[in-house]
Amino acid sequence: MTRYIFITGGVVSSLGKGLASAALGASLQARGFTVRLRKLDPYINVDPGTMSPYQHGEVYVTEDGAETDLDLGHYERFTGVSSRRSDNVTTGRIYSSVIARERRGDYLGGTVQVIPHITDAIKEFVQSDATEDFILVEIGGTVGDIESLPFLESIRQMGNELGDGRTMFLHLTLVPYISSAGELKTKPTQHSVKELQSLGIQPDILLCRCDREIPVNERRKIARFCNVREASVIPAYDVDNIYQVPISYHKYGLDNEVLHHFGLQAQDPDMGPWEDICDIIRNPEGEVTIGIVGKYIQLPDAYKSLTEALVHGGIANKVRVKIEWIASDDLEKTENVSERLSKLDAIMVPGGFGERGAEGKIAAARYARENKVPYFGICFGMQMAVLEAARNLAGITNASSSEFGPTEVPLVGLMTEWSKDGGRVERRSGEDDLGGTMRLGNYECKLVPGTHAREIYGSETVLERHRHRYEVNINFLEQLEQKGLKFSGLSPDGRLPEIVEYPDHPWFIGVQFHPELRSRPLDPHPLFVSYIKAAKERSRLV
Ligand code: GLN
């Protein structure tokens, strides 16, 4: 029997609802339950695939090739459960499915309305293939937004239909400290709960974000005014690292209250693995500085999974990872390159789109190759490393990517541009036209024996998640290998390069896929562990 926990947010946005949901998932797992997390996003885009990273942060890609909200990354990192296409839905997708049904005549001439048709579609989504003990459903946005009303109505209905034994409402709020008065204020929480109540939802648990201790009296007041048990007013204090959150929730009784609500008994949770991680984060043996050369550096959320994967690599090597953000445009001036890169322990060129800053990324790859600085190129970062090798090692000076416009030498291009038979057709098609041309989700990669990649992974094949339109042109393999760039991972049919490396470099690897998407604190990705190890070794040399 699956139980549903609905997580809403009030007062202001950015309280960390995604993290709160993920951490609660981890706490329930520590009690021995199985969990799955889902996210309902109120915006009208069908998925975030076409949204700018400035608007929406990173696009998180699932194994089955869905482009989803970055909160799904938090869910996976905290619970280790791989998300699926069916774990994230937007208003846009709900509406487009209802409208498609209407066009097919499925509603038999009836008037199609928000209630019941849209709300039924939402409820169907929330309950689809539910086999876990708990499904945690995060509702995007803040209570009071017009956009999220159909979602709130749907979860209200589910509460009514399934009853308290199978549903629970958790509301995340803010208890601000007003310095001029020297007081904590509970009124915003009271108002936010009233708003929820006016929609027919009575929260069962309140999780109150606060930057200082909330005294018992204040908690009692919140409980009384908001109609919840006093023990169910749980403080959510700021912590020094996100992996501390499950521990903190447990300390203040969140998982206990959830079990109390459902009338469940369970084993005491084992928080040991989280405590071990936090110990290392608090007392590292050293520090490494990684330079990330990118376009969206003002907005670290655009690289969320990447920075987390670096932290995981750091935990595995017992070092703190300090990130230096380097605007790729800056490296287009030659005099900047060595000045900006020479103090780093390793260089990272992450995924990216479009021509702007590409020359700076190529310069970073060249600097790393020539100066033997560890280099990790992900997706676009691999493509730029290959372009660098072609231009500066193989002398193909006009090599380019057709992503930057028409080129005589599409060293990187759409497969249809460089393959004689027009390429492969196995790509999964997304629902929108732009998404449909991308290689998305898990694809297999065969590792070449005797390479760094093969040794790091310790297996013959790997499954990794992809999100790109362009491919490195396999016809250049021989020419580049002769000059020292080894193609160490290929698609099973041998037609698409997946990994490149320099065998005689301490650590220089480019991958066409996104390994950061499957790195988890309790199960760090081997490439990140090995990369940070190389950075650590360099930090001791220089
Ligand atoms: N822009 C490149 C492509 O589409 C790389 C994409 C990426 O880095 N995710 O192939």
- Percent strand equals 15-25%
CATH topology-level fold name of the largest domain: Rossmann fold
Overall number of domains: 2
What is the residue-averaged pLDDT? 93
Task: Describe the protein's topology.
Layout: E1 3-9, H1 17-30, E2 35-41, H2 53-56, E3 60-61, E4 67-68, H3 71-79, E5 88-90, H4 91-104, H5 114-127, E6 134-139, H6 149-162, E7 167-174, E8 177-178, E9 183-184, H7 187-198, E10 205-210, H8 216-226, E11 233-237, H9 245-251, H10 254-262, H11 272-282, E12 286-294, H12 304-316, E13 319-327, H13 334-341, E14 346-349, H14 358-371, E15 375-378, H15 380-392, E16 399-401, E17 409-413, H16 415-418, H17 433-436, E18 439-447, H18 452-457, E19 461-468, E20 471-472, H19 477-482, E21 486-490, E22 497-501, E23 508-511, H20 526-541
Parallel strand pairs: 1-6, 1-7, 2-5, 2-6, 7-10, 10-11, 12-13, 12-14, 14-15, 15-23, 16-17
Antiparallel strand pairs: 3-4, 8-9, 17-20, 18-19, 18-21, 21-22, 22-23
The protein binds glutamine.
The site of glutamine has 10 residues, from strand 19.
Commentary on this structure:
- There is one protein chain.
- With 542 residues, the chain is an alpha/beta fold.
- It folds into two domains: 3-273, P-loop containing nucleotide triphosphate hydrolases (Rossmann fold), CATH 3.40.50; 284-395 and 437-539, Rossmann fold, CATH 3.40.50.
- The chain contains 20 helices and 23 strands.
- The strands form five sheets. The protein has a nine-stranded mixed sheet with strand order 13-12-14-15-23-22-21-18-19, with helices on both faces. Strands 5-2-6-1-7-10-11 form a seven-stranded parallel sheet, with helices on both faces.
- A hairpin with a 6-residue loop joins strand 21 (486-490) and strand 22 (497-501).
- Helix 4 packs across helix 5 (114-127).
- Mean pLDDT is 93; it is low at 429-435.
